[in-house]
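Kindly review this protein for my students:
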Amino acid sequence: MFINHNMPALRTNSQLKTNTTRMNKSLERLSSGYKINKAADDSAGMAISRKMKTQIAGLNQASRNASDGISVIQTAEGALTEVQNMLQRMRELSVQAANGTLTVDDRKSIQDEIDQLGQEIDRISTDTEFNTKKLLDGSLDRKSHSVNPSIKVISANETVASGKYEIKLTNYPEQARYEGSAGTDFTGTGKRVSAAEAGTITINNESITINEGDSREEVVEKLRNLCSRVDVVMEATDKNADLADKGTAYRFLTKGYGSDQELNIQCSNTALAAVLGINADVKEKGADPVIETGEGFKKTSTISYSNTTATITDYNGFEMKIDLETAAKEMKEAKDADPAATLAEKDTVITVFDAGPMVLQVGANEYQTVDVIIPEVSTKTLGVDSVNVLSDKGAQKAITKVDSAVNRVSEVRAKLGAYQNRLESSISNLDTSSLNLDEALSRIEDVDMAEEMTKYTQLQVLVQASTSMLAQANEQPQTVLSLLQS
Protein backbone atom coordinates (compact mmCIF):
# COMPACT_ATOMS: atom_id res chain seq x y z
CA MET A 1 0.00 0.00 0.00
CA PHE A 2 1.15 3.52 -0.90
CA ILE A 3 0.10 6.81 0.65
CA ASN A 4 2.18 9.40 -1.26
CA HIS A 5 0.33 8.74 -4.53
CA ASN A 6 -3.29 7.63 -4.48
CA MET A 7 -3.25 6.22 -7.97
CA PRO A 8 -6.81 4.84 -7.99
CA ALA A 9 -8.10 8.32 -7.05
CA LEU A 10 -5.93 10.03 -9.62
CA ARG A 11 -7.11 7.65 -12.36
CA THR A 12 -10.74 8.07 -11.32
CA ASN A 13 -10.34 11.88 -11.28
CA SER A 14 -8.85 11.79 -14.78
CA GLN A 15 -11.77 9.75 -16.02
CA LEU A 16 -14.16 12.16 -14.31
CA LYS A 17 -12.56 15.11 -16.14
CA THR A 18 -12.82 13.28 -19.46
CA ASN A 19 -16.47 12.41 -18.91
CA THR A 20 -17.26 15.95 -17.75
CA THR A 21 -15.59 17.49 -20.84
CA ARG A 22 -17.46 15.12 -23.15
CA MET A 23 -20.73 15.83 -21.33
CA ASN A 24 -20.18 19.61 -21.63
CA LYS A 25 -19.53 19.27 -25.39
CA SER A 26 -22.69 17.22 -25.74
CA LEU A 27 -24.58 19.83 -23.75
CA GLU A 28 -23.20 22.57 -26.05
CA ARG A 29 -24.39 20.68 -29.15
CA LEU A 30 -27.83 20.10 -27.65
CA SER A 31 -28.23 23.76 -26.70
CA SER A 32 -27.08 25.11 -30.13
CA GLY A 33 -28.37 22.39 -32.40
CA TYR A 34 -25.02 22.31 -34.23
CA LYS A 35 -22.37 19.62 -34.29
CA ILE A 36 -19.74 22.24 -35.16
CA ASN A 37 -19.69 25.22 -32.79
CA LYS A 38 -16.02 26.06 -33.22
CA ALA A 39 -13.24 25.06 -35.59
CA ALA A 40 -11.83 22.58 -33.06
CA ASP A 41 -15.04 20.55 -33.19
CA ASP A 42 -14.39 19.58 -36.85
CA SER A 43 -11.88 21.71 -38.74
CA ALA A 44 -12.51 20.06 -42.12
CA GLY A 45 -16.26 20.11 -41.65
CA MET A 46 -16.13 23.77 -40.62
CA ALA A 47 -14.18 24.74 -43.80
CA ILE A 48 -16.57 22.79 -46.02
CA SER A 49 -19.66 24.20 -44.32
CA ARG A 50 -18.43 27.81 -44.67
CA LYS A 51 -17.91 27.31 -48.40
CA MET A 52 -21.33 25.75 -48.71
CA LYS A 53 -22.95 28.64 -46.85
CA THR A 54 -21.27 31.13 -49.19
CA GLN A 55 -22.55 29.19 -52.19
CA ILE A 56 -26.06 28.96 -50.76
CA ALA A 57 -26.17 32.71 -50.09
CA GLY A 58 -24.98 33.34 -53.66
CA LEU A 59 -27.61 31.01 -55.11
CA ASN A 60 -30.38 32.65 -53.10
CA GLN A 61 -29.29 36.13 -54.23
CA ALA A 62 -29.00 34.95 -57.84
CA SER A 63 -32.58 33.65 -57.59
CA ARG A 64 -33.70 37.08 -56.37
CA ASN A 65 -31.72 38.70 -59.21
CA ALA A 66 -33.51 36.53 -61.75
CA SER A 67 -36.86 37.47 -60.18
CA ASP A 68 -35.94 41.15 -60.54
CA GLY A 69 -35.03 40.44 -64.17
CA ILE A 70 -38.47 38.94 -64.74
CA SER A 71 -40.02 42.08 -63.26
CA VAL A 72 -38.03 44.18 -65.74
CA ILE A 73 -39.15 42.00 -68.63
CA GLN A 74 -42.78 42.12 -67.50
CA THR A 75 -42.57 45.93 -67.30
CA ALA A 76 -41.16 46.14 -70.82
CA GLU A 77 -43.64 43.59 -72.13
CA GLY A 78 -46.55 45.49 -70.59
CA ALA A 79 -45.41 48.66 -72.35
CA LEU A 80 -45.06 46.77 -75.63
CA THR A 81 -48.59 45.46 -75.23
CA GLU A 82 -49.81 49.05 -75.20
CA VAL A 83 -47.62 49.89 -78.21
CA GLN A 84 -49.10 46.95 -80.10
CA ASN A 85 -52.62 48.02 -79.15
CA MET A 86 -51.90 51.48 -80.55
CA LEU A 87 -50.45 49.99 -83.72
CA GLN A 88 -53.59 47.89 -84.12
CA ARG A 89 -55.60 51.08 -83.80
CA MET A 90 -53.32 52.74 -86.38
CA ARG A 91 -53.98 49.89 -88.76
CA GLU A 92 -57.73 50.08 -88.19
CA LEU A 93 -57.62 53.81 -88.92
CA SER A 94 -55.50 53.24 -92.03
CA VAL A 95 -58.02 50.73 -93.38
CA GLN A 96 -60.78 53.22 -92.65
CA ALA A 97 -58.89 56.03 -94.39
CA ALA A 98 -58.38 53.86 -97.47
CA ASN A 99 -62.14 53.82 -98.04
CA GLY A 100 -63.21 56.15 -100.84
CA THR A 101 -66.38 57.28 -99.05
CA LEU A 102 -64.42 59.60 -96.74
CA THR A 103 -64.01 63.33 -97.26
CA VAL A 104 -60.78 65.29 -96.91
CA ASP A 105 -61.85 66.48 -93.46
CA ASP A 106 -62.58 62.88 -92.43
CA ARG A 107 -59.06 61.82 -93.40
CA LYS A 108 -57.62 64.84 -91.62
CA SER A 109 -59.34 63.73 -88.41
CA ILE A 110 -58.00 60.21 -88.86
CA GLN A 111 -54.50 61.59 -89.49
CA ASP A 112 -54.71 63.64 -86.30
CA GLU A 113 -55.43 60.49 -84.26
CA ILE A 114 -52.64 58.57 -86.00
CA ASP A 115 -50.21 61.40 -85.21
CA GLN A 116 -51.23 61.33 -81.54
CA LEU A 117 -50.82 57.56 -81.42
CA GLY A 118 -47.34 57.92 -82.91
CA GLN A 119 -46.40 60.53 -80.31
CA GLU A 120 -47.58 58.24 -77.52
CA ILE A 121 -45.56 55.33 -78.91
CA ASP A 122 -42.47 57.55 -78.86
CA ARG A 123 -43.28 58.67 -75.31
CA ILE A 124 -43.56 55.06 -74.16
CA SER A 125 -40.26 54.32 -75.90
CA THR A 126 -38.44 57.10 -74.06
CA ASP A 127 -40.22 57.01 -70.68
CA THR A 128 -40.66 53.32 -69.84
CA GLU A 129 -38.40 52.64 -66.86
CA PHE A 130 -37.59 50.11 -64.15
CA ASN A 131 -35.71 51.46 -61.15
CA THR A 132 -34.90 54.57 -63.27
CA LYS A 133 -33.33 52.37 -65.99
CA LYS A 134 -34.72 53.08 -69.46
CA LEU A 135 -36.06 49.94 -71.12
CA LEU A 136 -37.30 50.74 -74.64
CA ASP A 137 -35.11 53.63 -75.79
CA GLY A 138 -32.41 51.36 -77.26
CA SER A 139 -30.02 51.65 -74.31
CA LEU A 140 -30.47 47.91 -73.61
CA ASP A 141 -29.81 46.91 -77.21
CA ARG A 142 -26.75 44.81 -77.98
CA LYS A 143 -25.37 47.13 -80.63
CA SER A 144 -23.84 50.56 -80.33
CA HIS A 145 -22.66 52.52 -83.31
CA SER A 146 -20.08 55.11 -84.25
CA VAL A 147 -21.04 56.92 -87.42
CA ASN A 148 -20.78 60.07 -89.49
CA PRO A 149 -23.08 62.66 -87.87
CA SER A 150 -25.21 62.96 -91.02
CA ILE A 151 -25.78 59.20 -91.40
CA LYS A 152 -26.96 57.50 -88.24
CA VAL A 153 -27.60 53.82 -87.56
CA ILE A 154 -31.08 53.40 -86.11
CA SER A 155 -30.70 49.73 -85.23
CA ALA A 156 -28.64 46.64 -85.92
CA ASN A 157 -29.96 43.22 -85.07
CA GLU A 158 -28.09 40.42 -83.29
CA THR A 159 -26.70 38.92 -86.49
CA VAL A 160 -24.75 42.11 -87.16
CA ALA A 161 -21.24 41.32 -85.96
CA SER A 162 -18.97 43.90 -84.38
CA GLY A 163 -16.70 45.61 -86.86
CA LYS A 164 -16.51 48.28 -89.55
CA TYR A 165 -19.04 48.68 -92.35
CA GLU A 166 -18.43 50.90 -95.36
CA ILE A 167 -21.18 52.60 -97.32
CA LYS A 168 -21.12 55.14 -100.13
CA LEU A 169 -24.04 57.51 -100.42
CA THR A 170 -24.07 58.42 -104.10
CA ASN A 171 -27.52 60.00 -104.12
CA TYR A 172 -29.26 61.74 -101.27
CA PRO A 173 -32.98 61.14 -100.60
CA GLU A 174 -35.01 63.89 -102.18
CA GLN A 175 -38.43 65.36 -101.70
CA ALA A 176 -40.73 66.08 -104.59
CA ARG A 177 -40.25 69.82 -104.98
CA TYR A 178 -41.24 72.67 -107.24
CA GLU A 179 -40.06 76.29 -107.22
CA GLY A 180 -42.03 79.04 -108.86
CA SER A 181 -40.92 82.48 -109.99
CA ALA A 182 -41.68 85.96 -108.69
CA GLY A 183 -45.39 86.73 -108.91
CA THR A 184 -47.26 89.94 -109.68
CA ASP A 185 -50.17 91.86 -108.19
CA PHE A 186 -53.74 90.79 -108.76
CA THR A 187 -55.49 93.15 -111.14
CA GLY A 188 -58.81 93.46 -109.34
CA THR A 189 -59.93 96.44 -107.28
CA GLY A 190 -57.59 97.01 -104.35
CA LYS A 191 -55.15 94.51 -105.83
CA ARG A 192 -57.58 91.69 -105.19
CA VAL A 193 -58.44 88.73 -107.42
CA SER A 194 -60.28 89.86 -110.54
CA ALA A 195 -62.96 87.87 -112.33
CA ALA A 196 -60.39 86.98 -115.01
CA GLU A 197 -58.03 85.59 -112.36
CA ALA A 198 -60.48 83.48 -110.36
CA GLY A 199 -60.18 79.70 -110.61
CA THR A 200 -59.25 76.48 -108.82
CA ILE A 201 -55.87 75.16 -107.71
CA THR A 202 -55.44 71.44 -107.20
CA ILE A 203 -52.51 69.84 -105.35
CA ASN A 204 -52.34 66.05 -105.25
CA ASN A 205 -56.04 65.68 -106.05
CA GLU A 206 -57.24 68.14 -103.40
CA SER A 207 -58.63 71.49 -104.57
CA ILE A 208 -59.39 75.01 -103.40
CA THR A 209 -61.32 77.78 -105.12
CA ILE A 210 -59.84 81.25 -105.53
CA ASN A 211 -62.79 83.63 -105.71
CA GLU A 212 -63.12 87.06 -107.22
CA GLY A 213 -62.35 89.66 -104.54
CA ASP A 214 -59.99 87.48 -102.50
CA SER A 215 -56.95 89.34 -101.17
CA ARG A 216 -53.43 87.97 -101.60
CA GLU A 217 -53.40 87.14 -97.88
CA GLU A 218 -56.59 85.10 -98.29
CA VAL A 219 -55.18 83.31 -101.34
CA VAL A 220 -51.98 82.45 -99.45
CA GLU A 221 -53.98 81.22 -96.45
CA LYS A 222 -56.11 78.99 -98.72
CA LEU A 223 -52.95 77.60 -100.33
CA ARG A 224 -51.33 76.87 -96.96
CA ASN A 225 -54.44 75.07 -95.71
CA LEU A 226 -54.53 73.02 -98.91
CA CYS A 227 -50.87 72.09 -98.53
CA SER A 228 -51.33 71.00 -94.92
CA ARG A 229 -54.12 68.64 -96.03
CA VAL A 230 -51.89 66.87 -98.56
CA ASP A 231 -48.68 66.82 -96.50
CA VAL A 232 -46.92 69.46 -98.60
CA VAL A 233 -44.90 72.41 -97.30
CA MET A 234 -45.35 75.82 -98.90
CA GLU A 235 -42.58 78.37 -98.27
CA ALA A 236 -40.90 81.39 -99.81
CA THR A 237 -37.73 80.74 -101.80
CA ASP A 238 -36.30 83.77 -100.00
CA LYS A 239 -36.45 82.95 -96.29
CA ASN A 240 -36.65 86.68 -95.50
CA ALA A 241 -39.68 87.27 -97.71
CA ASP A 242 -43.32 87.25 -96.61
CA LEU A 243 -45.57 84.81 -98.44
CA ALA A 244 -48.21 87.50 -98.90
CA ASP A 245 -45.82 90.01 -100.46
CA LYS A 246 -46.03 90.81 -104.18
CA GLY A 247 -43.13 89.28 -106.06
CA THR A 248 -42.54 86.44 -103.56
CA ALA A 249 -41.56 83.21 -105.29
CA TYR A 250 -43.14 80.09 -103.79
CA ARG A 251 -41.54 76.70 -103.16
CA PHE A 252 -43.62 73.56 -102.66
CA LEU A 253 -42.10 70.45 -101.00
CA THR A 254 -43.52 67.12 -99.96
CA LYS A 255 -42.84 66.36 -96.29
CA GLY A 256 -41.65 62.89 -97.15
CA TYR A 257 -38.63 61.76 -99.14
CA GLY A 258 -38.28 59.10 -101.80
CA SER A 259 -39.51 58.01 -105.19
CA ASP A 260 -43.02 57.42 -103.88
CA GLN A 261 -43.43 61.14 -103.14
CA GLU A 262 -45.37 63.03 -105.81
CA LEU A 263 -46.19 66.69 -106.22
CA ASN A 264 -48.90 67.42 -108.78
CA ILE A 265 -50.14 71.02 -109.09
CA GLN A 266 -52.82 72.12 -111.54
CA CYS A 267 -54.24 75.62 -111.93
CA SER A 268 -57.44 75.96 -113.92
CA ASN A 269 -56.66 79.58 -114.90
CA THR A 270 -53.35 80.48 -116.54
CA ALA A 271 -53.84 84.12 -115.49
CA LEU A 272 -54.10 83.02 -111.85
CA ALA A 273 -51.00 80.86 -112.26
CA ALA A 274 -49.07 83.77 -113.76
CA VAL A 275 -49.91 86.08 -110.88
CA LEU A 276 -48.75 83.42 -108.37
CA GLY A 277 -45.62 82.71 -110.42
CA ILE A 278 -46.35 79.00 -110.88
CA ASN A 279 -46.92 76.79 -113.89
CA ALA A 280 -50.47 75.76 -114.63
CA ASP A 281 -49.48 72.08 -114.68
CA VAL A 282 -46.69 70.74 -112.45
CA LYS A 283 -45.67 67.10 -112.02
CA GLU A 284 -42.66 66.36 -109.80
CA LYS A 285 -41.40 63.24 -108.05
CA GLY A 286 -38.99 62.64 -105.20
CA ALA A 287 -35.97 60.37 -105.42
CA ASP A 288 -34.69 57.48 -103.33
CA PRO A 289 -31.17 57.63 -101.97
CA VAL A 290 -28.61 55.44 -103.67
CA ILE A 291 -26.30 53.55 -101.33
CA GLU A 292 -23.48 51.24 -102.31
CA THR A 293 -22.32 48.78 -99.68
CA GLY A 294 -18.62 48.11 -99.26
CA GLU A 295 -16.39 46.40 -96.74
CA GLY A 296 -18.22 44.55 -93.96
CA PHE A 297 -21.40 43.87 -95.90
CA LYS A 298 -22.07 40.65 -97.75
CA LYS A 299 -22.47 40.64 -101.52
CA THR A 300 -25.97 39.26 -101.00
CA SER A 301 -27.07 42.38 -99.10
CA THR A 302 -30.13 44.19 -100.45
CA ILE A 303 -31.20 47.75 -99.66
CA SER A 304 -34.74 49.01 -99.28
CA TYR A 305 -35.90 52.55 -98.56
CA SER A 306 -38.72 54.17 -96.64
CA ASN A 307 -38.68 57.95 -96.46
CA THR A 308 -35.18 58.73 -95.08
CA THR A 309 -34.59 55.24 -93.67
CA ALA A 310 -32.48 52.72 -95.59
CA THR A 311 -32.64 49.09 -94.50
CA ILE A 312 -29.76 46.79 -95.48
CA THR A 313 -30.55 43.08 -95.20
CA ASP A 314 -29.33 39.71 -96.39
CA TYR A 315 -30.83 36.22 -96.46
CA ASN A 316 -29.08 35.22 -93.21
CA GLY A 317 -31.21 37.64 -91.21
CA PHE A 318 -28.67 40.48 -91.12
CA GLU A 319 -30.46 43.80 -90.77
CA MET A 320 -29.11 47.32 -90.30
CA LYS A 321 -31.35 50.39 -90.46
CA ILE A 322 -29.68 53.68 -91.38
CA ASP A 323 -31.28 57.08 -90.91
CA LEU A 324 -30.45 59.62 -93.63
CA GLU A 325 -32.58 62.42 -92.19
CA THR A 326 -29.65 64.73 -91.39
CA ALA A 327 -28.13 64.08 -94.80
CA ALA A 328 -31.47 64.87 -96.42
CA LYS A 329 -31.72 68.14 -94.49
CA GLU A 330 -28.19 69.05 -95.56
CA MET A 331 -29.18 68.35 -99.14
CA LYS A 332 -32.34 70.48 -98.82
CA GLU A 333 -30.41 73.40 -97.36
CA ALA A 334 -27.79 73.17 -100.11
CA LYS A 335 -30.47 73.02 -102.79
CA ASP A 336 -32.30 75.96 -101.27
CA ALA A 337 -29.10 77.99 -101.26
CA ASP A 338 -28.16 76.98 -104.80
CA PRO A 339 -30.76 75.04 -106.85
CA ALA A 340 -28.06 74.20 -109.42
CA ALA A 341 -25.73 72.71 -106.80
CA THR A 342 -24.47 69.16 -107.27
CA LEU A 343 -23.75 67.38 -104.02
CA ALA A 344 -20.64 65.24 -103.74
CA GLU A 345 -20.73 61.54 -102.95
CA LYS A 346 -20.23 60.72 -99.29
CA ASP A 347 -18.18 57.77 -98.01
CA THR A 348 -18.96 56.72 -94.47
CA VAL A 349 -17.49 54.07 -92.19
CA ILE A 350 -19.89 52.77 -89.56
CA THR A 351 -18.29 51.10 -86.55
CA VAL A 352 -20.53 48.60 -84.77
CA PHE A 353 -19.55 47.26 -81.37
CA ASP A 354 -21.21 45.21 -78.65
CA ALA A 355 -22.60 47.27 -75.81
CA GLY A 356 -25.62 47.92 -73.74
CA PRO A 357 -27.44 44.68 -72.90
CA MET A 358 -28.81 44.31 -69.39
CA VAL A 359 -26.60 41.69 -67.74
CA LEU A 360 -28.39 39.61 -65.10
CA GLN A 361 -26.25 37.77 -62.55
CA VAL A 362 -28.15 34.48 -62.32
CA GLY A 363 -25.46 32.30 -60.71
CA ALA A 364 -23.48 32.23 -57.49
CA ASN A 365 -20.13 32.57 -59.28
CA GLU A 366 -18.51 34.98 -61.69
CA TYR A 367 -19.72 35.25 -65.30
CA GLN A 368 -22.82 33.17 -64.61
CA THR A 369 -24.93 35.74 -66.39
CA VAL A 370 -27.75 36.19 -68.89
CA ASP A 371 -27.79 39.09 -71.37
CA VAL A 372 -31.24 40.60 -71.87
CA ILE A 373 -31.45 42.61 -75.09
CA ILE A 374 -34.39 44.97 -75.56
CA PRO A 375 -34.29 46.96 -78.83
CA GLU A 376 -35.58 50.48 -79.26
CA VAL A 377 -39.30 50.57 -79.99
CA SER A 378 -40.00 54.02 -81.43
CA THR A 379 -41.97 55.05 -84.48
CA LYS A 380 -38.65 55.55 -86.28
CA THR A 381 -37.34 52.03 -85.65
CA LEU A 382 -40.78 50.55 -86.34
CA GLY A 383 -41.05 52.45 -89.63
CA VAL A 384 -44.30 54.25 -88.80
CA ASP A 385 -42.91 57.74 -88.21
CA SER A 386 -44.12 58.96 -91.61
CA VAL A 387 -47.56 57.34 -91.84
CA ASN A 388 -49.79 59.60 -93.93
CA VAL A 389 -53.38 58.65 -94.75
CA LEU A 390 -54.44 61.95 -96.30
CA SER A 391 -54.49 60.33 -99.73
CA ASP A 392 -55.72 56.95 -101.03
CA LYS A 393 -52.18 55.90 -101.93
CA GLY A 394 -50.83 56.95 -98.54
CA ALA A 395 -53.55 55.04 -96.70
CA GLN A 396 -52.78 51.86 -98.67
CA LYS A 397 -49.07 52.17 -97.87
CA ALA A 398 -49.87 52.90 -94.23
CA ILE A 399 -51.55 49.49 -93.88
CA THR A 400 -48.37 47.74 -95.02
CA LYS A 401 -46.14 49.88 -92.81
CA VAL A 402 -48.24 49.26 -89.71
CA ASP A 403 -48.43 45.53 -90.45
CA SER A 404 -44.64 45.43 -90.50
CA ALA A 405 -44.49 47.38 -87.22
CA VAL A 406 -46.97 45.02 -85.54
CA ASN A 407 -44.86 42.05 -86.62
CA ARG A 408 -41.72 43.72 -85.28
CA VAL A 409 -43.30 44.35 -81.88
CA SER A 410 -44.55 40.76 -81.84
CA GLU A 411 -40.98 39.56 -82.43
CA VAL A 412 -39.70 41.67 -79.54
CA ARG A 413 -42.48 40.47 -77.24
CA ALA A 414 -41.80 36.86 -78.21
CA LYS A 415 -38.13 37.32 -77.37
CA LEU A 416 -39.02 38.85 -74.01
CA GLY A 417 -41.31 35.90 -73.34
CA ALA A 418 -38.43 33.55 -74.11
CA TYR A 419 -36.21 35.49 -71.71
CA GLN A 420 -38.85 35.22 -69.00
CA ASN A 421 -39.22 31.46 -69.49
CA ARG A 422 -35.45 31.08 -69.35
CA LEU A 423 -35.23 33.09 -66.13
CA GLU A 424 -38.07 31.12 -64.56
CA SER A 425 -36.16 27.92 -65.36
CA SER A 426 -33.04 29.49 -63.87
CA ILE A 427 -34.92 30.35 -60.68
CA SER A 428 -36.22 26.79 -60.41
CA ASN A 429 -32.72 25.39 -60.91
CA LEU A 430 -31.18 27.87 -58.44
CA ASP A 431 -33.77 27.08 -55.78
CA THR A 432 -33.27 23.34 -56.26
CA SER A 433 -29.48 23.71 -56.02
CA SER A 434 -29.81 25.83 -52.90
CA LEU A 435 -32.15 23.27 -51.30
CA ASN A 436 -29.78 20.40 -52.06
CA LEU A 437 -26.81 22.32 -50.67
CA ASP A 438 -28.84 23.15 -47.57
CA GLU A 439 -29.51 19.46 -47.11
CA ALA A 440 -25.82 18.62 -47.45
CA LEU A 441 -24.91 21.45 -45.05
CA SER A 442 -27.42 20.11 -42.54
CA ARG A 443 -25.71 16.71 -42.56
CA ILE A 444 -22.38 18.39 -41.77
CA GLU A 445 -23.52 20.99 -39.24
CA ASP A 446 -26.78 19.90 -37.61
CA VAL A 447 -26.78 17.59 -34.60
CA ASP A 448 -29.05 14.56 -34.40
CA MET A 449 -30.90 15.56 -31.24
CA ALA A 450 -32.10 12.02 -30.36
CA GLU A 451 -28.66 10.53 -30.82
CA GLU A 452 -26.96 13.38 -28.96
CA MET A 453 -29.47 13.17 -26.08
CA THR A 454 -28.67 9.50 -25.71
CA LYS A 455 -24.96 10.31 -25.53
CA TYR A 456 -25.61 13.12 -23.05
CA THR A 457 -27.63 10.82 -20.76
CA GLN A 458 -24.89 8.19 -20.94
CA LEU A 459 -22.20 10.76 -20.14
CA GLN A 460 -24.28 12.22 -17.33
CA VAL A 461 -24.50 8.74 -15.70
CA LEU A 462 -20.75 8.22 -16.20
CA VAL A 463 -19.97 11.58 -14.56
CA GLN A 464 -22.15 10.68 -11.60
CA ALA A 465 -20.53 7.25 -11.38
CA SER A 466 -17.04 8.74 -11.65
CA THR A 467 -17.84 11.22 -8.89
CA SER A 468 -19.04 8.40 -6.62
CA MET A 469 -16.03 6.22 -7.38
CA LEU A 470 -13.66 9.14 -6.73
CA ALA A 471 -15.13 9.44 -3.26
CA GLN A 472 -14.51 5.75 -2.68
CA ALA A 473 -10.94 5.99 -3.99
CA ASN A 474 -10.20 8.90 -1.66
CA GLU A 475 -11.20 6.76 1.38
CA GLN A 476 -8.75 3.92 0.59
CA PRO A 477 -5.69 5.57 2.36
CA GLN A 478 -7.68 5.43 5.63
CA THR A 479 -6.93 1.70 5.80
CA VAL A 480 -3.22 2.52 6.24
CA LEU A 481 -4.08 4.61 9.33
CA SER A 482 -6.00 1.66 10.81
CA LEU A 483 -2.95 -0.56 10.23
CA LEU A 484 -0.67 1.91 12.01
CA GLN A 485 -3.03 2.21 14.97
CA SER A 486 -3.15 -1.55 15.43
Residues 43-97 form the longest helix (55 residues).
